[in-house]
Specification:
The chain has 354 residues and is an alpha/beta fold. The chain is built from 17 helices and seven strands.
């Protein structure tokens, strides 16, 4: 009996709004340009309006969040847990339906819901992933998306890093963690959008991708909610305003702020002690950026070690992405587009870090 070659797949997870469906759409198009038979499998019962082609849509074929909430009177979080438990209970039927619509060499992209409870307080998502590996003969890699904008807020990034570490531990899959929406952050700065005023990086981009020594972000906790304006005169005025500086000093020394800092210090310590997390920045509109993420994924799920004959496009892809020296150029390019030099002069040289 000839053993069937395993398929390869990506399970896309991350907080709501992190760009999971957009990632699946862009990655599906990129994989097809490489000659791979990419298929999107939507397993998010709340995502009823898919802007992409999907081989299987759980909303149309099995269960939807809206229907569950109307019938059971559950809220959105409870309803979503109900939906995922329903999917887990009927997974064999769902796997059979998926099997009928894919080929033996299909490359699957599984779009999962983003609610945190599914990964921290429930085992249904993990069970679904591991059972699908067996039922569909999959070599799965988890791609965890974190919004790049979290890098502009020390408190949010530490929280996201803790969540990311938790998901790595809970799902127990080879993983690639991605800082998504880098293109949206940089375009907001370049085009002068209103929300760009709060976008600056307290550290170099490489600090966030390596995710080491997160305690270095602690001095920036009291600046997380500070409105940053590109007007240099405003910065000068705040730096020279004694009353403002005294108010900030009182806030830093308050009991609440000390507890806030201690909490984040403990969270950063947990992330550092496990040492599992590192990120790859992603601009979904850049073929080079998508290719760099795909190279990491292929290494994690073993696609690069398959015994098949490479097509021309695959050979070109492996040759182009195999050059590690471009990683530094990618980080430097993103940092140059995001960082505002005048802000770093104040952040590192004076009053914001005191």
């Amino acid at each position: 009996m000839v053993q069937q070659s395993p398929r390869f797949g990506i399970a896309v997870v991350g907080p709501p709004g992190s760009g999971k469906t957009t990632f699946c759409d862009g990655m599906q198009q990129y994989l097809r340009l490489l000659g791979r038979k990419a298929k999107v499998i939507n397993l998010d019962p709340a995502n009823e309006s898919l802007p992409l082609e999907a081989a299987y849509d759980v909303c149309r074929e099995a269960v939807t969040l809206q229907a569950v909430c109307e019938e059971t009177q559950l809220g959105p979080n409870g309803g979503l847990i109900y939906c995922m438990e329903y999917i887990e209970a009927h997974l064999e039927e769902i796997a059979q339906a998926i099997e009928q619509r894919i080929q033996a060499d299909s490359y699957l992209l599984l779009d999962f819901p983003g609610q945190v409870e599914l990964y921290t307080h429930s085992s249904c998502a993990r069970n679904i992933l591991h059972r699908l590996e067996s039922l569909l003969q999959l070599r799965m890699t988890m791609v965890q998306l974190i919004d790049f904008q979290y890098c502009t807020d020390a408190s949010k990034f530490i929280s996201a890093a803790l969540l990311g570490t938790t998901m790595l531990l809970r799902l127990e899959l080879p993983a690639v963690s991605v800082l998504s929406k880098a293109d949206l952050v940089t375009s907001s700065l370049e085009e002068g959008h209103d929300n760009a005023s709060n976008m600056f990086l307290p550290m170099q981009v490489q600090f966030f991708t390596e995710c080491l020594n997160l305690d270095r972000l602690l001095p920036f906790l009291d600046t997380s909610n500070l409105a940053i304006d590109s007007n240099q005169d405003l910065w000068d005025a705040l730096a020279d305003d004694d009353e403002y500086q005294k108010a900030r000093q009182r806030r830093r020394q308050s009991r609440l702020q000390q507890k806030f800092r201690k909490l984040h210090e403990s969270m950063a310590e947990v992330v550092q002690d496990f040492g599992l997390l590192s990120f790859v920045p992603l601009d979904i509109n850049s073929a080079e950026s998508v290719g760099r993420v795909l190279a990491k994924i292929d290494q994690a799920n073993g696609y690069v070690f398959r015994g098949q004959t490479h097509q021309v496009n695959e050979a070109l892809f492996n040759s182009a992405i195999g050059q590690n020296e471009s990683d530094f150029e990618c980080l430097a390019n993103i940092h140059e587009r995001v960082a505002a030099p005048e802000h770093f002069q104040y952040l590192h040289g004076g009053w914001l870090t005191k």
